[in-house]
Design goal:
Layout lengths: L9 H15 L9 E6 L1 H4 L10 E4 L11 E5 L5 H4 L3 H4 E6 L5 E7 L10 H14 L5 E6 L2 H9 L4 H11 L2 H5 L4 E4 L7 H11 L4 E4 L3 E6 L2 H23 L9 H11 L5 H4 L22
Parallel strand pairs: 7-8
Antiparallel strand pairs: 1-3, 1-6, 2-5, 3-4, 4-5, 6-9, 8-9
Length: about 300
C-alpha cells in the first residue's frame, strides 16, 4: 500500500525518528510511552485535502483553550518499535473541536485505533507549558526512562531533592533544566487525576517524574523534549552507578552550582540550591511475613 503524503511529512518523520531513538534506548518497552506534538495550521494545510471523514471522540475533560488546535499523537496500545514500520497505523493527527469537549481524528490510526490513554495528561500539560513558555509549537514526551524510575525508589522523593541529585549527577543538568524536576507521587495512569497533577507540575518545571513509573518532558520541539529527558537520564545513570559503588565521596558543591548558573545566565530552582547535597529515602521497617509450612 502506498504511503499517504501525510505519512512522509516532516512532522511525522521527526516523530518517527524520536520514537525509534527512544525504543533503541530501552525507554519504551512494548506499548510503554506516548508523545504529542502541537502543529500549526500552516503545518497541516498541505495535507487537508487527503483527510476525509474524521472520527469524533469525546474528551474526558473539556479543554476550550485548545479549541481548533492540531496535535500529532501516538496511539493507544501501540509499540514504539513499530512506528517506523507503519506510521499511519501507529500515529494520528487530531484536532480539538471548537467547544473543547471532543477531538476529531483527521489522519492516522488506520486500523481503527485511538490516541494514547494519557491524552488528558498531554493536553493539560500543553496548556500549562504554553502559559510559561509560549511558542508556536510544543512537544510533550512520556517514557519509561530506566534510571530515572530506579531513582524514584531510593531518593527522598520531592522536587528539591530529586532536582539537586540530578544537578550533582552531571554538570549539564543545571544548565539544561534550571527550573528543576517536578515530582508526582504514584497514581493510576490514564486518569484525569494524574493529568491534573502532571499539568500542575508543568506550570513550574519542564520535566516531571512520576514515582515508580516514568517521566514527562516538554519542549518547543521534539528534539528539545527528547534532549531534556536524555540529559536527566544520563545523570540518573551516573547516580545509580555511584550509589551501587557505595555512594559519592565528593560532589558538585552549592558554590559550584551557583558559579555554573552565573556563567550560563540561568536562575536555578531556589529550593534545590538551599540544600546541602541530596538525600536517600529513609529505610522503612521490614514487613515480617509469616510462612505457613506444609505438613
Amino acid at each position: 500500500m502506498t504511503a499517504s503524503r501525510t505519512a512522509t511529512s516532516w512532522f511525522v518523520s521527526d516523530l518517527v525518528k524520536v520514537t525509534t531513538d527512544m525504543w533503541l534506548k530501552g525507554w519504551d518497552e512494548r506499548n510503554g510511552g506516548n508523545i504529542s506534538f502541537r502543529l500549526l495550521d500552516r503545518d497541516v494545510e498541505p495535507y487537508l485535502a487527503e483527510w476525509r471523514e474524521p472520527r469524533v471522540l469525546p474528551l474526558s475533560d473539556p479543554l476550550p483553550e485548545l479549541a481548533g488546535q492540531y496535535f500529532l499523537v501516538t496511539g493507544s496500545g501501540k509499540y514504539f518499535r513499530n512506528i517506523q514500520l507503519n506510521p499511519e497505523a501507529n500515529l494520528g493527527v487530531i484536532r480539538v473541536l471548537p467547544d473543547g469537549n471532543a477531538i476529531e481524528v483527521c489522519w492516522g490510526y488506520s486500523d481503527g485505533g485511538v490516541p494514547t490513554s494519557e491524552l488528558s495528561a498531554h493536553l493539560k500539560s500543553h496548556c500549562a507549558r504554553r502559559r510559561v513558555a509560549p511558542g508556536d509549537r510544543g512537544a510533550i514526551v512520556h517514557c519509561h526512562a530506566t534510571n530515572l524510575i530506579a531513582l524514584s525508589y531510593v531518593l527522598d522523593f520531592n522536587t528539591a531533592n530529586v532536582t539537586r541529585a540530578l544537578w550533582e549527577g552531571s554538570t549539564e543538568c543545571l544548565v539544561v533544566f534550571p527550573e528543576g524536576v517536578g515530582t508526582v507521587e504514584w497514581m493510576v495512569p490514564g486518569t484525569a487525576s494524574i493529568g491534573d497533577a502532571t499539568a500542575e507540575q508543568m506550570k513550574r518545571h519542564p520535566l516531571v517524574l512520576w514515582k515508580f513509573h516514568g517521566v514527562f518532558g516538554s519542549g518547543q520541539t521534539l528534539d528539545e523534549a527528547f534532549g531534556l529527558i536524555d540529559t536527566a537520564e544520563k545523570s540518573a545513570e551516573i547516580l545509580v552507578r555511584l550509589i551501587a559503588m557505595g555512594g559519592a565521596r565528593h560532589t558538585i558543591s552549592t558554590q559550584n552550582l551557583a558559579d555554573l548558573a552565573k556563567r550560563f545566565n540561568v536562575t536555578p530552582l531556589a529550593s534545590a540550591m538551599t540544600l546541602e547535597g541530596w538525600q536517600m529515602a529513609a529505610v522503612s521497617a521490614p514487613t515480617v511475613r509469616s510462612v505457613q509450612r506444609r505438613a
